[in-house]
Amino acid sequence: MNLAHKNCKKNSPVAAVYLHIPFCQHKCPFCSFAVIRDRERFHEKYILGMIDEIKKRAEWMGAKQSFYDKKYTGQKLLKSIYFGGGTPSSLRITEVDILLSQVRNFFPCSDDIEISFEMNPEDVNPEYLCGLAEIGVTRISLGGQSFQSLSLKKLGRLHSVLELRKAVKDIICSAINNWNIDLMFGIPEQSITMFKKDVEEALSYNPSHISLYGLEIHEKTPFGKNKQIIKWDSEHQQQYEEMYLWAIERLEKSGLFQYEVSNFSQKNMESFNNLLVWSGNEYLGFGVGAHSYVSQTRWSNKRSLKIYQKHLEENTWPVEFEEQLQQKELAAESLMLALRQTKGINVEQWQTRFGSLWENQQFDILNELCDTGRAFWKGQQLCLTSKGMLLADRITVELMPPSISKL
Ligand code: SF4
């Protein structure tokens, strides 16, 4: 029976679905994601586990279906499916297709759904891209990171600069014209000149989107245990700021506008998945370590493959952590998500929605941020400047009402 047909008049209980593919050829020394060394023999069992999870969650959400049917007068459809990892491109096209079909079966999809797929350069080739386009993938996100051999080596990446260039060219020649490239700054031994070359080369390919990430050093990773790297990092903070501020200016000059701290796109080419999640829409994540947010409850899955699969076999949720967000936490989260976006936050609406939470202290901080060029008003919206974006996390904490920051 074609379940897509059966569900065609139903609502999708969420706007976005995330599918986590944890397999990687090897673990990069800076990576803190839920990742497992790829072995082809793991794929089948993992995919069957994910299908089981998708089915169970869909049934669980189905119990709430009448609530959704009553809540929305129009039809509410799934608008985004995001394959992240790990390395989704470690899967065969048939495996990706099976997962996509299952999601489509259980979640009625919008005709213009965005289906994003993360790829590592070494996996990109014309046949694979053609296969992805045929099964409905509409957007590629390429984990390029750098066009400099030294930087790729420092990051422990498996691809070479030549492979990255070939991957970019294959994507440009493919049927998928919405594509992102990830670039990284703050890499050990990366000079400003090297970083500028990375940005210029990426721009020369005219991508529709660039994600620009500062290297973060996580305690439990090999980078986090490497004293030389920690020293390099602490001694080069000023340089990282310079790189970031230069890149914002350069990318905007080239026609890519910044819509979030780390994300730049051509007009109307923002990652739809990002926009949905940052606007507070509900989403479901499947697979190890995946996060979900439904009915003001946030949860994340077990990170261990074995434990994840054991839970599914025993018919229990593979959940590691779950929290019901109270009004104050929702206020904190919406402040944080809005401040990270260039469109900023409507403070008045935010105060009305959550109650008057700010005290004199927060207004003083706000005035100081404006006076020092870190924030500005655009009509009713409070926005961070490029300099403010550098400190977005810290500013969010400072602007948290005291009643929230003590939680
Ligand atoms: S390829 Fe990506 S997900 Fe995999 S280990 Fe490297 S950084 Fe992490």
What would you say about this model in short?
The protein is built from 18 helices and 17 strands. It has helices at 3-6, 40-62, 65-71, 93-106, 126-134, 149-154, 161-173, 192-204, 227-235, 237-253, 272-278, 305-313, 327-339, 347-354, 360-371, 386-390, 392-399, 402-405, and strands at 16-21, 23-24, 36-37, 78-85, 109-119, 139-145, 178-185, 209-214, 257-260, 263-265, 283-286, 291-294, 297-301, 319-324, 345-346, 375-378, 381-384.
Describe the structure.
By secondary structure, this protein is α/β, with parallel strands linked by helices. The chain has two domains: 3-277, pyruvate-formate lyase- activating enzyme (Alpha-Beta Horseshoe); 327-405, Arc Repressor Mutant, subunit A. The protein is 44% helix and 21% strand. It has 18 helices and 17 strands. The strands form four sheets. It has a nine-stranded mixed β-sheet with strand order 9-10-8-7-6-5-4-1-11, sandwiched between helices. Strand 4 (78-85), helix 4 (93-106) and strand 5 form a beta-alpha-beta unit. Helix 2 (40-62) packs parallel to helix 4 (93-106). The longest helix is centred in the first third of the chain and has 23 residues, at 40-62. Residues 1-8 have low confidence and may be disordered. The protein binds iron/sulfur cluster (SF4). Iron/sulfur cluster is lined by residues 24, 27-28, 31, 33, 35, 85-87, 120, 143.
